[in-house]
Amino acid sequence: MSEVSGDTVRVGILGLGSIGRTHAAALAHLAAGGVDVRVTAASGGTPEALRTSGWPDAAHVPAGELLGRELDVVVVATPSGQHAEHAVAALEAGADVVVEKPLATTTPDATRVLSVARERGRRVFPMAQRRLEAQHVAIRRLLDDGALGTLVLGEVLVPWVRDAAYYDAAPWRREMPAGGSLMNQGLHSVDLLSWFLGPLASVTAQTAVLGDGGPAEDTAVVTVRSAAGALGIVATSTATPPGDAARLTLRTDRGVIELAHTDVVRWEIDGVDRPSASSDVAAGSSDPAAIGIAGHVEAWRDVLEAHATGREARVRALDGWRTVALIDAAYRSAATGRLVDVPAAPDGA
C-alpha cells in the first residue's frame, strides 16, 4: 500500500454511489496533478467502484469503521435524507466534512450541522460547485462592484427529465423532501439564485407530481422576495422531455443577463462588456451522469486550500444552510398554501 505522509490530507468517502464516485475521481485527478491528498477509505458501493474511481489502495469498509479511522476530511455522499445525520457523525468523530448537496433536507437539521461544527471546532464545506464557475464569479463580481445596477428580478428555469428507471435505481429519489425536483435536481440553480439575490425574506410555492417522480414532487414553481426587495421566480421539473439546459436570468435596473447552463446567451447591460470567462462543465438535463468531474475538481481544489491554510472557503457552511432554508420554506408554503418567511441565519453562523 502506498505511503501517506504527515502532510497528506486523508479523505474518507461515506457513500460510493454515482456522486461518491465523482468525488473519488475528482480527488484522483487532483492527486495525479500533484495535490497531496489521498482517499484512504470509503464505504458503500463496491470495492471495484473504489478501484475504478482511481483509488486501488484505499480500504473498502463499513461506514462505522470508516468514521473510526484517522481522517482529516469525510465526504458525505450518502442519500440526501441522511446527509445531516452523517455530517454530524463525522464532525463528532473529529473530521471536517464535505457535504454533497444538499447540506440537509430541513432547516433544523442544517442548523444542527452548523451547531455541531462550531461546538467541535471543525469545518463544513457544502458542495455548491456552480458558484465557482468562471462566468458566475465574473457576474457576481460585477454585481458587487455596482456595475450591473440593482437587481430587480431573478428567474430560474430547470426543465429536465428523469425516467422511472432513474427513480427506481435509488428509492430515496421518490421520497420527500430528499427526492423533490427543488431539493435534488434543481438545487444548484436555486442556490445560484439565492447567491445572486442575497438573503431571502419570504417564499410562496406550488408543487405537483406530473411525471415519474412520485410521490416526491417532480415539478415546482416558487416565488421569492429578497431581504433587499428584489423578487425571484423558480420553476423546476423532471417531467419535461427532452430535457433542456437550466436557465438563469438576472434583470437589473440597467438591463438583462441570461445564461443557458454555462453559456451567456444574452447580455444587454449598457456600458458593460460581456465577460469572456466561461466554464467547461457539462449539463445533466437528461442524464445525471453527464456532469463529469470538472465542477467537483474546482470545488475540491478550493476546499483543500481552505483546509490547509485555515482561510474561509469560497462556499461557506452558511451558504449551504441558506439554500436548504429557502427550499424548506418553499415546501412548507406548498403544503399550506401560504406565504412562508425564510428564517434568519442561525446564531454564530
Keywords:
alpha/beta, eight-stranded mixed β-sheet, 10 helices, 349 residues, 2 domains, disordered N terminus, Rossmann fold, Dihydrodipicolinate Reductase, domain 2
Give a short overview.
With 349 residues, the protein is α/β, with parallel strands linked by helices. The protein has helices spanning 18-32, 47-52, 63-67, 83-92, 107-120, 134-144, 164-168, 187-197, 294-309, 317-336; strands at 9-14, 37-43, 59-60, 73-76, 96-99, 124-126, 151-159, 200-208, 219-226, 231-237, 247-252, 255-260, 263-269, 340-341. It folds into two domains: 9-126, Rossmann fold (3-Layer(aba) Sandwich); 130-279 and 316-341, Dihydrodipicolinate Reductase, domain 2, CATH 3.30.360.
Description:
Keywords: NAD. Pfam families: GFO_IDH_MocA, GFO_IDH_MocA_C3. It comes from Beutenbergia cavernae (strain ATCC BAA-8 / DSM 12333 / CCUG 43141 / JCM 11478 / NBRC 16432 / NCIMB 13614 / HKI 0122). This protein is of the alpha/beta class. It has two domains: 9-126, Rossmann fold (3-Layer(aba) Sandwich), CATH 3.40.50.720; 130-279 and 316-341, Dihydrodipicolinate Reductase, domain 2, CATH 3.30.360. Helices cover 32% and strands 23% of the residues. The chain contains ten helices and 14 strands. It has helices at residues 18-32, 47-52, 63-67, 83-92, 107-120, 134-144, 164-168, 187-197, 294-309, 317-336, and strands spanning 9-14, 37-43, 59-60, 73-76, 96-99, 124-126, 151-159, 200-208, 219-226, 231-237, 247-252, 255-260, 263-269, 340-341. The strands form two sheets. Strands 13-12-11-7-10-9-8-14 form an eight-stranded mixed beta sheet, with helices on one face. A six-stranded parallel beta sheet has the order 3-2-1-4-5-6, sandwiched between helices. Strand 5 (96-99), helix 5 and strand 6 (124-126) form a beta-alpha-beta unit. Helix 1 crosses helix 9 (294-309). The longest helix has 20 residues, at 317-336. Mean pLDDT is 95; it is low at 1-5.
